[in-house]
Write a structure and sequence with these properties.
- It comes from Arcobacter roscoffensis.
- By secondary structure, the chain is mostly helical.
- Helices cover 34% and strands 7% of the residues.
- The protein has 13 helices and eleven strands.
- A hairpin with a 2-residue loop joins strand 3 and strand 4.
- The protein starts with a helix and ends with a helix.
Length: 393
């Protein structure tokens, strides 16, 4: 099956390439960055489609952004260190400490504290991955696992394991890690971390991935700042092609255009449109079946409670809580009563249990009905509420 599929793919590509070459010779003017043909607009049409050729000048409804506004908006952090902060900032200006700009720096120890309070719920302990979220670390800084290919039935000994694409094995630059944390994390309150806190979480994740900085292993006492960050070299820095990390961004575009314009980079062969396989079509059987799906592929996705009364430690109620409720009720930053906080839940229950049921089922403030778990019946969701209440006594 693998051979047959690839034969078809190859023939399809060759057909497209041949067609493109034919069109290129008569209509095309240049290629776009993905290697596709860009045609000339002729008689108000782009190939078969009409286009708006009306010219518009001085089109601007707004004022020019100030430098401070641009500084707040522009949070990109590039591999060469562009955008990597030296100080803690607020509203585009350095935070002052004793009259001087406060240096941005964070220790692994602080990173552990921040990670456990704001990241563990999704990414799991030690960045090993959580339910529905991929791991960030496999505990080593090596590209060795990238040579693994997920089950390939055409191989003599197909591997059931694919490559491990985590920070220490796959990411080419640590700048992406810093920028992503700074711009998008934590998911329920993005852009809330200071630059020092981002350095701290970055340092912790680098430690968990076994990354060394300038030959030094990271421990809890290690403090990361801009100067040290610029010395980071990730194991897979040279693992991507074509080169797009060029000093001139336009050259990166040209490198990509040249790569994708060459069909030798993604397969060549003899064109065939009919009866392409001579003789008996080979049939390859899957040797290693993937059966460890969680939940199993054949399992009904809707949760059905047993008829008997659920207990406080009902595992299904706990599972539903972790899936639909923990993101908000496990983090004080959100403002919802945190499970385990006795005072918070005592205040909630002062309204009466029926009121709590009613609010949780219909939704209240920013909480959607049933926390978004609309596949649960009212009675089933009450079990989840009971779980949170009992866990907070």
């Amino acid at each position: 099956m693998f051979t047959l599929e690839n034969t078809k793919l190859k023939k399809t590509l060759l057909g497209l390439i041949a067609a493109s070459a034919l069109l290129t010779s008569s209509f095309a003017s240049e290629k776009v960055v993905d290697g596709a043909i860009k045609y000339e607009v002729k008689d108000g049409k782009y190939t078969s489609y009409h286009v708006n050729t009306q010219k518009v000048k001085n089109f601007n409804h707004f004022r020019t952004a100030t430098k401070s506004e641009l500084a707040v908006w522009n949070t990109d952090v590039m591999p060469d260190g562009t955008g990597l902060p030296e100080y803690d900032m607020k509203h585009g200006k350095p935070v002052l400490e004793n009259g001087k700009a406060k240096k941005a720096e964070g220790s692994v120890e602080l990173g552990i504290e921040l990670y456990e309070s704001q990241c563990t719920m999704c990414h799991g302990e030690f960045a090993a991955g959580g339910k529905g979220y991929p791991p960030l670390s496999i505990g080593e800084a090596s590209t060795a696992s990238l040579s693994k290919q997920l089950l390939n039935p055409a191989d003599e000994n197909p591997s059931p394991e694919g490559p491990s694409k985590v920070i220490g094995t796959y990411w080419p630059y640590a700048s992406t890690l810093f920028w992503y944390i700074k711009d998008a994390m934590p998911f329920n309150h993005p852009k809330s971390l200071t630059n020092s806190e981002v350095y701290a979480i970055t340092a912790y994740l680098l430690m968990e991935n076994g990354i060394e900085i300038d030959g030094e292993e990271l421990d809890e006492e290690y403090v990361l700042d801009r100067e040290k960050f610029l010395k980071i070299k990730m194991p897979n820095e040279d693992g991507f092609y074509p080169n797009v990390n060029t000093k001139d961004p336009k050259q990166a575009v040209e490198n990509m255009r040249a790569f994708l314009s060459d069909p030798k980079n993604y397969g060549t062969g003899t064109r065939c449109m009919k009866d392409c396989i001579k003789g008996k079509v080979p049939v390859l059987r899957i040797k290693n079946e993937l059966s460890d799906f969680e939940p199993p592929a054949s399992t009904e996705r809707f949760w059905k409670l047993p008829e008997q009364k659920g207990s406080v430690a009902d595992p299904k109620a706990k599972q539903a809580y972790e899936t639909s409720c923990a993101a908000c009720h496990g983090n004080k930053v959100i403002g919802a009563p945190v499970v385990g906080d006795k005072e918070a839940w005592a205040s909630v229950l002062a309204k009466g249990k029926e009121a709590v049921y009613n609010n949780s089922i219909k939704g209240i403030n920013a909480m959607p009905p049933k926390g978004g778990a609309m596949h649960l019946s009212d009675e089933e969701f009450k079990k989840v509420v009971d779980y949170m209440i009992n866990a907070s006594k």
